[in-house]
C-alpha cells in the first residue's frame, strides 16, 4: 500500500461544548457537500478522493474486526452497532481546524480521538501535518539544486541527491503509514467498543481500561494470541526508567540496572488517569501495560472483571469504590508486590525496535 497516496491522521471531537450542532447535520458547513463512502460498518464523509476514503475505511474495518476478535477471545458479549459508524475525513487541515475550534477540543495538539458524545471521529490529510510538510519542503529544496551541484558519488553511481530524496520519501511514507495505522486504529477501536457495548450501557468505564484496550488493539493481533505493542512497550520502558538499558535491549533485552519506579504510580493510573501533570505517552503506555499483563497472566479473570464493571453503580460517587472492588476481586489488591510483579513481567518482554515510533499527541482521556 502506498502510504503517501492515502495520508490521513485522526482527529477527534471529544470535549465538545454542550448544545453544539451535530457535525453531520447537513445544515452545518463542516461537511456540507461531502461525499459518503460506505462500508459494512462505517459511513465515511469526506471531501477527498474515493480511493483515499476507501484506504481509510479499510483500516477502520480492521479496527472493527480487532474488537470483535478480542471480545470473542475473552468471551465478552457485544452487540452490532445500531447503524453505520460516522467518520469525517477532511482534505485540508485548515477545514479541520475550523471544525475543531468550533466543535472540538480546546487543546491544539489533539491529533486523534473519538467523541462518544457525538459518536463521531474525524481525520485530516496527514500531508498537511507540520512534520510531514517539513520533510516535503526538504525534498523540494534538494530537487531545486542542479544535478551537477549535488552529485557526490563516483561516475555511474546514483547521485547523492537522488539517494537523499529517496531516503526522505521512504521515511515520510513510513511515518505516514505508522501514524495512520496507529491513530486510525486507536480511534476506531474507541468508536467500535463504545457502540458494541463492550463495557455495558451504563456501567463503569475506567479510563485506564478504555485507553489500554485501544492501545492493545491499535496493532494487528493474531487469532490465537495477544501480542505486545512495540511502540507502547518502548514508552513503558521509559516510564519505568528502564531506558538506561536501551542500547543493548534493542537487540536482546536485559533486566534494568536501575530500580524500577513508575512515571505514573499504579494508584494514580487506576484512579486518577489523565491528571494534567502526567506524561501522556507514559500514561498510555502504562494503561496498555496493565491490560496486556492481565490478558497474559490473568486471562480467566479478565472477562469477569469487565462484566462486573458493566453493572457498576451509575452513581459517580460510588464509581471509584466499585472499580476498586471489581479490580481487587478479580486480580487482587494492586499493592507494592502486585506492582513489582507486573513491572518485572513487562520488562522481561523482548524489545523490538518500532519501525518508526511516532509520538502520538494523544488527547486526555474522554
Ligand atoms: Zn484513546
What is this structure, in a nutshell?
With 366 residues, the protein is α/β, with parallel strands linked by helices. The chain is built from 13 helices and six strands.
Cα Rg: 22 Å
Q: Give the overall average pLDDT.
A: 77
The run of helices and strands is EEEHEHEEHHHHHHHHHHH
Could you give the count of β-strands?
A: 6
Number of helices: 13
For the report, how would you describe the main beta sheet? 6 strands, mixed
* Backbone shape: globular
Class inferred from helices and paired strands = alpha/beta
- How many structural domains in the coordinates? 2
Query: How would you describe the oligomerization state of the chains in this entry?
Result: single chain
Low-confidence stretches: 1-21, 244-259, 356-366
Considering DSSP H and I runs of 4 or more, what fraction of the residues is helical? Answer: 40-55%
How much of the sequence lies in strands comes to 5-15%
> Could you give the distance between the termini?
32 Å
The hetero molecules present are: zinc ion
Topology:
Layout: E1 8-12, E2 35-38, E3 42-46, H1 50-73, E4 85-90, H2 93-103, E5 114-115, E6 120-125, H3 130-144, H4 147-150, H5 160-196, H6 207-217, H7 230-239, H8 246-249, H9 266-271, H10 280-297, H11 302-310, H12 316-331, H13 336-347
Parallel strand pairs: 3-4, 4-6
Antiparallel strand pairs: 1-6, 2-3, 5-6
The structure holds zinc ion (ZN).
Zinc ion (ZN) binds at residues 113, 186, 190, 211, 214, 362.
Describe this structure as you would to a colleague.
By secondary structure, this protein is of the alpha/beta class. The protein has two domains: 1-198, no CATH class; 200-366, no CATH class. 48% of the residues lie in helices and 8% in strands. The protein is built from 13 helices and six strands. The chain has helices at 50-73, 93-103, 130-144, 147-150, 160-196, 207-217, 230-239, 246-249, 266-271, 280-297, 302-310, 316-331, 336-347, and strands at 8-12, 35-38, 42-46, 85-90, 114-115, 120-125. Strands 1, 2, 3, 4, 5 and 6 form a six-stranded mixed sheet that branches. α3 (130-144) runs antiparallel to α5 (160-196) and α7 (230-239) packs across α10. The longest helix is centred in the middle third of the chain and has 37 residues, at 160-196. The protein is globular. The relative contact order is 0.14. The site of zinc ion has 6 residues, from α5 and α6.
Amino acid at each position: 500500500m502506498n502510504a503517501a497516496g492515502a495520508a490521513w491522521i485522526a482527529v477527534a471531537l471529544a470535549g465538545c461544548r454542550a448544545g453544539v450542532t451535530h457535525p453531520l447535520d447537513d445544515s452545518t458547513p463542516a461537511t456540507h457537500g461531502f461525499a459518503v463512502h460506505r462500508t459494512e460498518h462505517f459511513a465515511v464523509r469526506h471531501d477527498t478522493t474515493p480511493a483515499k476514503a476507501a484506504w481509510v475505511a479499510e483500516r477502520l474495518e480492521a479496527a472493527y474486526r480487532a474488537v470483535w476478535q478480542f471480545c470473542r477471545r475473552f468471551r465478552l458479549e457485544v452487540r452490532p452497532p445500531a447503524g453505520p459508524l460516522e467518520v469525517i475525513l477532511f482534505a485540508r487541515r485548515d477545514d479541520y481546524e475550523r471544525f475543531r475550534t468550533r466543535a472540538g477540543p480546546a487543546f491544539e495538539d489533539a491529533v486523534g480521538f473519538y467523541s462518544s458524545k457525538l459518536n463521531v471521529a474525524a481525520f485530516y490529510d496527514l500531508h498537511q501535518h507540520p512534520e510531514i510538510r517539513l520533510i516535503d519542503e526538504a525534498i523540494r529544496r534538494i530537487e531545486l539544486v542542479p544535478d551537477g551541484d549535488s552529485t557526490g558519488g563516483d561516475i555511474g553511481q546514483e547521485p547523492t541527491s537522488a539517494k537523499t530524496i529517496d531516503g526522505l520519501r521512504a521515511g515520510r511514507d513510513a511515518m505516514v503509514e505508522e501514524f495512520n495505522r496507529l491513530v486510525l486504529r486507536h480511534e476506531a477501536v474507541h468508536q467500535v467498543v463504545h457502540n458494541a457495548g463492550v463495557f455495558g450501557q451504563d456501567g463503569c468505564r475506567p479510563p485506564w481500561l478504555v485507553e489500554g484496550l485501544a492501545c492493545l488493539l491499535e496493532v494487528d493481533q493474531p487469532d490465537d494470541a495477544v501480542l505486545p505493542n512495540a511502540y507502547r512497550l518502548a514508552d513503558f520502558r521509559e516510564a519505568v526508567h528502564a531506558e538506561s538499558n536501551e542500547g543493548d535491549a534493542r537487540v536482546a533485552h536485559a533486566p534494568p540496572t536501575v530500580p524500577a519506579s513508575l512515571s505514573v504510580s499504579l494508584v494514580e493510573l487506576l484512579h486518577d488517569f489523565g491528571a494534567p501533570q502526567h506524561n501522556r505517552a507514559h500514561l498510555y503506555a502504562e494503561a496498555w501495560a496493565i491490560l496486556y499483563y492481565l490478558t497474559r497472566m490473568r486471562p480467566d479473570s479478565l472477562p469477569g472483571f469487565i462484566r462486573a464493571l458493566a453493572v457498576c453503580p451509575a452513581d459517580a460517587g460510588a464509581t471509584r469504590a466499585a472499580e476498586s472492588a471489581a479490580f481487587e476481586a478479580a486480580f487482587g489488591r494492586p499493592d507494592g508486590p502486585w506492582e513489582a510483579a507486573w513491572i518485572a513481567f513487562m520488562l522481561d518482554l523482548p524489545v523490538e525496535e518500532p519501525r518508526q515510533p511516532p509520538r502520538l499527541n494523544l488527547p486526555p482521556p474522554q
